[in-house]
Design goal:
By secondary structure, this protein is of the alpha+beta class. It has a domain at 233-330. It has helices at residues 3-7, 66-69, 71-74, 84-92, 96-100, 114-118, 122-139, 189-207, 235-238, 248-270, 312-330, and strands at 31-41, 44-55, 62-64, 109-111, 147-151, 154-158, 164-165, 169-173, 180-185, 215-218, 224-228, 233-234, 283-288, 291-296. Strand 10 and strand 11 (224-228) form a beta hairpin. The protein binds adenosine-5'-triphosphate, magnesium ion and zinc ion.
Length: 333
């Protein structure tokens, strides 16, 4: 990404809200556009004239923005008089409570029972899930915590600020359990699918000897996951602390990462379906005396990545500093 487009965007690392790198190509910064959107409810197709969508200028990814749209809320907003018949249809289909969230207390944020989500018609399910995690992430976008998040009746006490963020999720420490982290998918179908697949792929990597955090539990819709908290620091955070390229510490980390990248890329050639992103956010480095080890913190799929011309020197010297600048600009680190 060039510096001109980076300069257009910036947000604080305290915030887990608003600016994003494209989850598909991991290059472009998503911009918000307004598009018409059709929704099928109780057999009728209704067109919402203007809803917000996220769009990537680099790869063409475009999807409804769960974060910005709040479609469920919007549908009841006064400017949408013209969709009165949609509202009537929704009420007739007994979706009333979901929109108004009458079942929730004023302060409660959380994820609802999954049998409730199972029962939603397909078109509404993603809107509901976007809306749900949009509200949770907004509730966590405050400077101090902890914040109680209800997960289908259980309470998870999350520490603030977030401990990390990537294109697909925001990650928090548990106040009551130092051994696990709580990862919340960003409010879009792509990111939920990414987290669901990440949880399912973890066993594959572990089975091939790649150190990965264990999954304690995950939502079948991919909205959240509880993962083992791993030791070390992400390469995104550590890279600039390593010192000059000719120092022992820098050379040690570089050599460890080169061996790890070789191993992962070899695995991706043999198992292309397991291809994941080796972005600096996804690699953790443990420095232990003279030893340096690498872990893969995020096993989520990256089907659009092309490693056929991968060059480690280019990755280490050019791609990493660029990615780190971009993460900073959007507030991931
Ligand atoms: N298990 C963990 N232990 C410690 N820190 C973690 C863990 N999981 C995530 N983090 C922190 O959160 C950051 C983002 O996590 P992760 O890569 O899983 O998110 P993501 O949005 O899915 O990323 P991507 O978009 O690259 O798939 C990590 O770089 C790390 O700093
Ligand atoms: Mg990641
Ligand atoms: Zn893109």
């Amino acid at each position: 990404m060039d510096s001109v487009s980076l300069a257009e965007f910036s947000r604080s690392t305290q915030s887990s809200f608003s600016l994003d790198i494209c989850p598909r190509c991991e290059e472009g910064v998503l911009t918000i556009v307004e598009v018409p959107h059709d929704i099928t409810v109780a057999g009728s197709v209704l067109r919402l004239p203007r809803v917000q969508a996220e769009q990537c200028r680099v790869c063409g990814y475009r999807a409804l923005s769960g974060r910005e749209v709040r479609l469920f809320d919007v549908l009841f907003a006064p400017q949408y008089h013209q969709v009165g018949d949609l509202i009537a249809a929704l009420r007739a289909a007994r979706y009333h409570g979901m929109f108004l969230r009458e079942d929730r207390g004023e302060t409660a944020i959380g994820f609802g029972a999954r049998d409730y989500v199972d029962a939603l018609a397909f078109d509404l399910r993603d809107l509901y899930l976007d809306n749900e995690s949009g509200h949770v992430l907004e509730g966590l976008d405050i400077p101090a915590g902890p914040v109680a998040v209800d997960v289908a009746g259980r309470t998870f006490l999350l520490k603030l600020p977030k401990i990390g963020e990537g294109e697909n999720g925001v990650v928090f420490d548990h106040a009551a359990d130092p051994d696990t982290v709580f990862k919340i998918a960003k409010p879009r179908q792509y990111s939920r699918e990414h987290i669901r697949a990440e949880c399912e792929n973890t066993a594959f990597f572990a089975g091939h000897g790649v150190p990965v955090p264990a999954i304690t539990e995950f939502d079948p819709y991919g909205s959240y996951a509880v993962k083992q908290r791993i030791a070390g620091v992400s390469l995104a955070v550590l890279y600039e602390e390593l010192g000059a390229p000719d120092t022992r510490r820098h050379r040690r980390a570089r050599a460890a990462m080169q061996a790890f990248a070789d191993r992962l890329l070899d695995l991706f050639v043999r198992h292309p379906e397991a291809k994941t992103s080796i972005s600096p956010n996804n690699i953790f480095i443990v420095e232990d005396g003279q030893e340096c080890r690498c872990l893969l913190v995020d096993t989520g799929p990256a089907p659009c990545h092309d490693y056929s011309t991968f060059d480690f020197s280019q990755y280490w010297e050019v791609t990493l500093p660029q990615k780190i600048r971009q993460y900073r600009a959007v507030g991931y680190i």
